[in-house]
Amino acid sequence: MTATPPLDPADLLGLDDLLGDEDREVRRTVRAWAADRVLPHIAGWYERGELPQVRELARELGALGALGMSLEGYGCAGASAVQYGLACMELEAADSGIRSLVSVQGSLAMYAIHRYGSEEQKQQWLPRMAAGEIIGCFGLTEPDHGSDPAGMRTRAERDGSDWVLTGRKMWITNGSVAGVAVVWARTEEGIRGFVVPTGSPGFSAPEIHHKWSLRASVTSELVMDGVRLPAEAVLPGARGLRGPLSCLTHARYGIVWGAMGAARSCLETAVEYSRTREQFGRPIGGFQLTQAKLADMAVELHKGVLLAHHLGRRMDAGRLRPEQVSFGKLNNVREALEICRTARTVLGANGISLEYPVMRHATNLESVLTYEGTSEMHQLVLGKALTGLEAFR
């Protein structure tokens, strides 16, 4: 008879049993990099509202194989969806801004080129992006069109064999440090994607300041003022909104995992704090109300990780649907934010201090809650799946 293994308080459901040796090695490698290169500095970066040495960090992440991690060929690692998810979880356990850097690079900019680009575009951009030598960004959201990208005003018009691109994009991660932008624009043929070198005349990317969330992340506006592009700049395989929305589905999958990393960091902080913080003559972890909070946080964390694993297995099997990714993002980000808020109450006043990661994670997740599809939009996606009736308008 096999002996029951001892209980690991950090893995109450024994979810490590779902991982193979290669999966664990990916997790260990990314966790070690984040511990060395991010965690000692992140509170200061967040407080100052900066991500210094972002290009150096990108090259290091490229050396780890974390950029375009689940893509095949062109210098990409060709990792499984589960392994990519584990990497996202470890990166966001450090900070959502670091995971956003990787997610936008790999799951949006590189994914768009990999899936919809010409062979020439793939050869030109993907190897250097996979190595972190070039940073990419993804221009879909506009100042007046976030949840409704079909209303975009950015236009691309033909001028001979060239395209001329005019418009603005907003809240673009990596924008001002990117060497290439994938920009979506309205044309006479419908919505098309364009690969835009950011050094093109008429292109600028002013950085957005005064953020109280994702402060250790580069966020910019993209301004295209008559940017002239050759015919081969268009992504030949993408027509209509299906192209950019499929990229967002891939990126949202990473968020399903990443949000659980932020939640895990907050739970671990709360558990450790409860063991050492004394009130009324004993550690607060010995009080029933504190234990109830910790138990509820642990339940939601492990449910969320289990959900992420399930979606990852479906993606690896080619069976993952966009509605299922909406399910994951809606649940996991919402629950991660609640875990962060509850952890803050366990830490009391110390919960708002940058000496602890809790408030930083909570404020970051306020952005994660609404970017790449607000909770309301994902509720409507699931509502349509349940009823067959569209309620977006």
From TrEMBL:
Alphabetized UniProt keyword annotations: FAD, Flavoprotein, Oxidoreductase, Transit peptide
Record domain Acyl-CoA oxidase/dehydrogenase middle: where: 137-227
Residues in Acyl-CoA dehydrogenase/oxidase C-terminal domain copies: 239-386
Domain of life (superkingdom): Bacteria
Stored InterPro entries: Acyl-CoA_Oxase/DH_mid-dom (IPR006091), Acyl-CoA_Oxase/DH_mid-dom_sf (IPR046373), AcylCo_DH-like_C (IPR036250), AcylCo_DH/oxidase_C (IPR009075), AcylCoA_DH/ox_N (IPR013786), AcylCoA_DH/ox_N_sf (IPR037069), AcylCoA_DH/oxidase_NM_dom_sf (IPR009100), Glutaryl-CoA_DH_mitochondrial (IPR052033)
Bilayer-crossing regions: none
Similarity remark: Belongs to the acyl-CoA dehydrogenase family.
Any coiled-coil regions, as ranges: none
Source species of the chain: Streptomyces sodiiphilus
The protein's name: Acyl-CoA dehydrogenase family protein
Residues annotated as domain Acyl-CoA dehydrogenase/oxidase N-terminal: 21-133
Phylogenetic classification of the source organism: Bacteria, Bacillati, Actinomycetota, Actinomycetes, Kitasatosporales
Cofactor section: FAD
